Amino acid sequence: MTQLSRPRCVSGIKPTGLPHWGNYFGMIRPAIELAETHDAFYFIADLHALTSVRDAASLRADSLGVAATLLACGLDPARTVLWRQSDVPEVLELTWLLSCVTGLGLVERAHAYKDAQSKGKETNVGVFSYPVLMAADILCYDADAVPVGKDQLQHIEMTRDMATFFNVAFFGAPAGGTVDEAAPWDGRMLKRPRGVVRQNAALVPGLDGQKMSKSYGNHIPLFVGPKELKQRVMAIVTDSTPLEAPKDPTTCNVLALYRLFASAGEVAELEARYRAGGFGFGHAKLALLAQAEAAFAPMRARYDALMADPDGIEAVLQAGGGRARTVARGVIERVRSACGLRARSEG
Ligand code: ADP
Ligand code: TRP
Fold it and tell me: The CATH number of the domain where 237 resides is what?
């Protein structure tokens, strides 16, 4: 059972395809570890996925697939609340209320939107309001901590700003960002969360050395079979230093990924082999492959078993949705009444 006295952590992951190593080391594993010390609330961000997904069948399948991935990686549904974002409509209500106190300037500074603008890409209102929905996701559950990869930190900062705007407007909080760690949360206001980023996995490189991302096509999916895994690992880009020559261990993509799996001793040993020469990148890739297989094969087996029983995954999500909704309703009651809307409990 969850314990009420523990701090709460909240995070979401979009069902836009199946998770890869970057998602695992940057978000999934830290989130599961944080659940040891926090009351953990994690959701499948299907509403956010709809800013880009246009295929209902893949949204459905990926929602189950991502949920199964979290469970296979060790998330314990008895101690963690796991649900689908869209099963808690209160989040959309809070999105609107936050939109009404948030200046356009703040949202226009969001990296994803600015990026789309600068590339002249046609975008939609959902991409623009993405950070407001994300703030609502977090504030709707009185989160203390939000485990994410580094690229999401700007969104957490924006969430803190939006909470302050709302608290200043409707709870009489002092303006100027003073509703901070220094000033205690009074239990009625929106709670300002902090982002939790794992420094050693803040940015997992992809096959080409850039940030690993589904959208760059440079990713290694978590649960591919051994054959495809080998193909992917062998495709990691390295420089052309010949096999006999000593190699620089600080700049190699293979080693950067190896460090995520291996113990300090194993890493030191491989680094020494690089420096000594006579050890090729192909050898390093095989060492990485062995580590990845050892780490992920048992999870892959659990994933396959979970996916063979979609009703079981659905049952976990439904139960989680009910628990999440109870918390969100409490927060919505507070904010409805603060801003002059009729609180539902008023009948
Ligand atoms: P993608 O870029 O593949 O679409 P998402 O944006 O859906 O991945 O990311 C989901 C979560 O995984 C976020 O918390 C994000 O910060 C984290 N994440 C994604 N890619 C990486 C990476 N290469 N390194 C570290 N964390 C990552
Ligand atoms: N924007 C996050 C991503 O792209 C997903 C997300 C949606 C999220 N809502 C959230 C993460 C709330 C943390 C908290 O990965």
Answer: 1.10.240.10
